[in-house]
TrEMBL record, chain A:
The lineage of its organism: Bacteria, Bacillati, Actinomycetota, Actinomycetes, Micrococcales. One of its GO terms (molecular function) is ATP binding. Keywords: ATP-binding, Nucleotide-binding, Repeat, Transport. It comes from Isoptericola halotolerans. This is Monosaccharide ABC transporter ATP-binding protein (CUT2 family). Pfam families: ABC_tran (PF00005). CDD domains: ABC_Carb_Monos_I, ABC_Carb_Monos_II. PANTHER family: CARBOHYDRATE TRANSPORT ATP-BINDING PROTEIN MG119-RELATED, GALACTOFURANOSE TRANSPORTER ATP-BINDING PROTEIN YTFR.
TrEMBL record, chain B:
It is a multi-pass membrane protein. Its main location: membrane. Keywords: Cell membrane, Membrane, Transmembrane, Transmembrane helix. This is Monosaccharide ABC transporter membrane protein (CUT2 family). The chain crosses the membrane at residues 47-65, 72-90, 96-118, 130-148, 168-189, 219-244, 250-269, 276-298. The keyword Cell membrane applies. It is found in: Cell membrane.
Length: 523, 342
């Protein structure tokens, strides 16, 4: 599988140069003077955790996101003003995720829509189908009926249709954003083969994937983004996995160190009162069968990069998604969770990593958001009286440093940090025995982070079994008594936290390439 | 908070007042209410009585729309309810007795509730889009009503039943009192229990509500059931008005008027926050408009056009974008003299 063109030795002239790209949303700088250079015949990987600015940078390149400062050169000529049509005219094409295609349109229509072949009497469908077939043939698929509706195809073929849609324009630059996220291993390998073939044809490829191994397999260079800045650029052949991961997740922040030592001294002595036990729980295409015990009074961290299965495990354990294998045991007896409502009745509360879509109900007030879960638990016929509401809200008002004036404002108007606190208050109001928090500190400032972390530590002290998930491994290490490490939709190990365990320990486990678990299970 | 509510209802209320003023200009005694035989008479009382069926339908529609749904079948349910009750009374041995009438009402309301439950089942359990799910009953319902009346327009004489649509109690039309009572009941049901909040929560963000443990299925099912029940009650009032079961024309296009009333009242078709008092104002605007057309002497044939114009005006005035444009204009105008001065 060695590249015939040996692109690393003699870098060709760049097709695209992005210099000092800065993007702001509502005054918030989401991309800060980022640089990116794409060369023909190279696969360039864009790395970074959620919110690092990858999508924004891609948006700036393809013209969907307006830039505040910086310039984009194509063949040394400035690309202005930006716009989707302009980028496309310059030969920059994007492979959408298959979810962005139209399921009810045919394969040919999905490939050709937006750039149909037109004649005197409108669209010439015969020619369209010819071109679609040719594009699919370049990708090595010839057995797909162009008239089948897209929804009838397998995820892998759909993704290949998305690629065909991009290459039918014969682009010089191809952007692939998470092209393998819905594919299984064999299908992903097929797609990576296509990527290599296009690279060898001289296309400059920008590749984004959360799957580390795929990135290492297919890319020539990589650019690492964190918090909207480019923090490193590497030749793939020369970079250590551990170095890459630590660049992606960032260094420790001194202000948070204090809590660490506090947690270490608290470190749970190991009662065996298991609150929630998952045995071989899993779901096809989502998570390999996994065993996890959640113990009362213990914080368990789920560590891993995004897409590693950490969120999926949390959702399977809390009934948000139905597991198709394995069992859940609550306080020693088997339970079937038919959904989040059932989980809440069993005193299992869960938050989603997606605060905006699955957390806050933006149009309801802060007060309503806080009492929502408790009210749902009681049923609509037994409303919380105003006094009861006040009591619930007041309990968390001080603890979460919310102000009284905020209570009657729509929750959507609040800052991300305050919304996270409101979410936490909503969950705590149900007095959970098991609390599963997915990214409760994402996108919020240090002070709010500290608040939430202290709160989590306190809850564990009160006997709640807590799951803490965060992209920031330093947080996980600081808070957790035990750390479950996941990679590529599989649990690869479990660590008992202690003075010897650092971010590096986990990074090394994740980075250990296909050698199996780097550390044995704790028990 | 209260000020915002007032603000949201400002334009609809202004439109209603404008309509009333226009009518008074055209016919100075328009707002006059006289007492005749111990009953109140006059155009305002007519408006209140005529508004009753639409009010009932629109109440259910408000709740359905708040959950991001829509119920197109209300007109068909009106027809079925009317047909059922009148056919039952017509075939009973004693059409004039109170017990017969009560039984007829119970049967009609029971069936309407079942029809609402059926809609709710299709939407919340089977997962059919509300517009399609209720379209089924909208089309089939007229056929069912036809079947009940056997294609005839059944005319009935029954004094107790007639009271529902044309009677008076304490000087006020019975229909108005019924609709008012249901309005209060729904207001209490949604604002004194947690139903209102959960309905809004499901309408604003179904995914987040599910994770918070809200049983969206039950909520959606409940609002469709209520919509069916209220439509049935509206059907009874309409049938009692004319004392004839017309399967084809009873409640024809009432779904459109109800949706209009809800939208005029400020409840978004995208679901979420709803306003029952807004719907009330919307219903009064539409009913007044219908009466205006008669009073002014415009042919009833062009009533829809007239309605459309008013609706366009009110919805435009409520649209945030239009308001912003107006506000920006006003600011510009205010800013200009200063520029000159400087």
């Amino acid at each position: 599988m060695a590249a015939r063109t040996a692109p690393m030795e003699q870098p060709a002239a760049p097709v695209v140069e992005m210099h000092g790209i800065t993007v702001e949303y509502a005054g918030v700088r989401v991309l800060d003077s980022a640089d990116l250079v794409l060369r023909p015949g190279e696969v360039h990987a864009l790395m970074g955790e959620n919110g690092a600015g990858k999508s924004t940078l891609i948006g700036a390149l393809t013209g969907t996101v307006p830039i505040v400062a910086g310039r984009i050169l194509v063949d040394g000529v400035p690309l202005t003003p930006t716009g989707v049509a302009r980028s496309r005219a310059e030969g920059i094409a994007t492979v959408f995720q298959e979810s962005h295609l139209s399921p009810h349109l045919s394969v040919a229509e999905n490939i050709m829509i937006g750039h149909e072949v037109r004649g005197r009497f409108g669209i010439r469908w015969a020619r369209c189908r010819e071109r679609a077939a040719a594009a699919l043939a370049t990708l090595g698929i010839e057995d797909v009926d162009l008239r089948t509706p897209l929804e009838a195809l397998s995820p892998a073929t759909k993704q290949l249709v998305a690629v065909a849609r991009a290459i039918v324009l014969e682009p010089r630059v191809l952007v692939l954003d998470e092209p393998t996220s819905s594919l299984d291993e064999a299908e992903a390998a097929q797609l990576l083969g296509v990527v290599r073939r296009l690279r060898d044809q001289g296309v400059a490829i920008l590749f984004v994937s959360h799957f580390l191994e795929q990135v290492f397999e297919v890319s020539n260079r990589m650019t690492v983004l964190r918090d909207g800045r480019v923090v490193a650029e590497y030749c793939t052949a020369e970079v250590e996995r551990a170095e890459l991961i630590s660049k992606m997740i960032g260094e420790d922040i001194d202000a948070l160190q204090a809590l660490h030592s506090q947690r270490l001294s608290h470190h749970y002595a190991g009662s065996s009162q298991v609150a929630l036990r998952a045995t071989s729980i899993g779901r096809h295409g989502t998570l390999e069968p996994t065993d996890v015990d959640l113990v009362r009074g213990e914080v368990v961290g789920f560590a891993g990069l995004r897409g590693s299965g950490r969120t999926e495990l949390a959702r399977l354990m809390s009934g948000v998604e139905r597991a198709d294998r394995g069992e859940l045991w609550l306080d020693g007896s088997r339970v079937q969770l038919r959904g989040p409502a059932a989980a809440l009745r069993h005193r299992i509360a869960v938050s989603s990593e997606n605060l905006r879509n699955e957390g806050i109900v933006a149009g309801l007030t802060v007060r309503e958001n806080i009492v929502l879960a408790l009210q749902a638990l009681r049923g609509w016929t037994r409303p919380l009286s105003r006094a009861e509401q006040e009591a619930v809200v007041d309990t968390y008002l001080d603890a979460l440093r919310l102000s009284h004036e905020d209570l009657d404002r729509p929750a959507g108007e609040l800052s991300g940090g305050t919304q996270q606190k409101v979410m936490l208050a909503r969950l705590l109001a149900t007095r959970p025995h098991v609390l599963i928090l997915d990214e409760p500190t994402r996108g919020i400032d240090i002070a709010a982070k500290l608040d939430i972390q202290r709160r989590v530590a306190k809850l564990a002290g009160e006997g709640v079994a807590v799951v803490f998930i965060s992209s920031q491994l330093d947080e996980v290490v600081r808070l957790s008594d035990r750390i479950v490490v996941l990679k590529d939709r599989e649990k690869i190990g479990e660590l008992s936290n202690g003075p010897g365990v650092t971010v590096d320990t986990i990074v090394e486990m994740i980075a250990a390439e296909l050698d199996g678990p780097a550390a044995g299970d704790a028990d | 908070m209260r000020e915002i509510t007032r603000h949201a209802l400002f334009w609809p209320v202004a439109a209603l007042i404008a309509l009333l003023v226009a009518n008074t200009v055209y016919r100075p005694d328009f707002l006059a209410v006289t007492v005749l035989d111990g009953h109140l008479f006059g155009a305002p009382i007519d408006i209140l009585r005529n508004a009753a069926p639409l009010m009932l339908v629109a109440l259910g529609m408000t709740l359905v729309i708040a959950t991001r749904g829509i119920d197109l079948s209300v007109g068909a349910v009106v027809a079925i309810s009317g047909a059922l009750s009148l056919s039952f009374i017509a075939t009973s041995p004693d059409p004039g007795s109170v017990s017969t009438v009560l039984l007829a009402i119970a049967i009609a309301l029971g069936v309407s509730l079942v029809l609402g439950v059926w809609n709710g089942f299709l939407v919340s359990v089977v997962g059919i889009q509300p517009i399609i799910a209720t379209l089924i009953l909208m089309t089939a319902g007229r056929g069912i009503a036809m079947l009940i009346t056997e294609g005839q327009i059944t005319t009935v004489t029954s004094a107790p039943f007639k009271t529902l649509g044309s009677g008076f109690w304490l000087g006020l039309p019975v229909a108005t009192l019924v609709a008012g009572g249901v309005f209060l009941l729904v207001a209490l049901l949604t604002r004194r229990t947690a139903l209102g909040m959960l309905v809004e929560s499901v309408g604003i963000n179904p995914a987040a509500s599910r994770l918070a443990g809200v049983k969206a299925r039950t909520i959606v099912w409940t609002v469709f059931a209520l919509s069916g029940l209220f439509s049935g009650l509206a059907g009874l009032i309409l049938a009692s008005n004319v004392m004839a079961a017309d399967a084809n024309n009873a409640g024809l296009f009432i779904e459109l008027d109800a949706i209009l009333a809800v939208v005029i009242g400020g409840t978004s078709l995208q679901g979420g926050k709803f306003s029952l008092s807004g719907t009330l104002v919307g219903v009064l605007i539409i009913t007044t408009l219908t009466l205006t057309v008669t009073i002014v002497g415009i042919s009833p044939l062009v009533t829809p056009l007239f309605k459309a114009l008013v609706v366009i005006a009110v919805t435009l005035l409520q649209s945030p974008r239009i308001r912003e444009t107006f506000a920006a204009r006003a600011r510009q105008r205010a800013a200009r003299p200063e520029e000159v001065a400087a």
